[in-house]
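Morning!

This is the sequence you dropped in the shared folder:
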Amino acid sequence: MRIVPGLFGACLLLTACSGSPPPPAAPPTVTVTAPATPSATAADPAVLSWMDGFCSAIHGYRERTNEEAAPPKPEPGSVAEAQRVLSATLGGIAARTGEVVDKLTALPPAPVPVAEKVRQAFVTKYTTARDHAADAKKTLDNAKPGDGASQGPAADAIRRAQQDVDGAYDPVAPMAESPEAMLAAATAPGCKG
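The structure's back. C-alpha cells below.
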C-alpha cells in the first residue's frame, strides 16, 4: 500500500503499512560510570544531597523510558492509527524529558561549580528534547487523520529528541573534575542507578 509519494515514500510506507511507528532508536547503550570508592572522608552533606537529587532525576528518566519501551505494542492497521501511536510516543518523550527538566531546575544551586555547569548542560539538553517532541506532537495532532505525510516529520522529531539527550544519561561521569561530587556520588542512593 503506497501511503506517501516522493522521498518519504519508502520510510512512510514502512511506517504506515507495518502499522507501527518507526521504532525509536534502540535504547542507547548507556555506560554508567561507577562512582569512586568512598574513602575514610565522608561526603559533604550538601553535596551528597544535591548529587542524590541530580542522579535520581537522570536515572529516573532512563528507568521510565525503558519501562515504557519494553512491551511491544500491536501494529496499527491504518495511517490514522499510526498517527495516534506517533502522537503518544512524542507525548511520552515530552512528558519524561519535561519531568527531568522540572526535577533539575527544582534542585538548589549546586554546591560545587562543575556540578552547576553539568546541571545547566543537562537542563538544556532535556529542555530541547522536550520542546522538539511537544512541538512535533502538536503539529501531528493538528494534521488531518489519515495524512501519511504527517508521519515523516513526526518520526524525524522522535529521532531528533533522542539525539538531543544523547550523552546525558550518565550523571556521574561529567562530575569527574570534582572530587567532592565524585565522593558524594559514591554514597548517594540516587547515583546507584
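Headline: Confidence is low (pLDDT under 50) at residues 1-31, 36-40.

More detail when I'm at my desk.
O.
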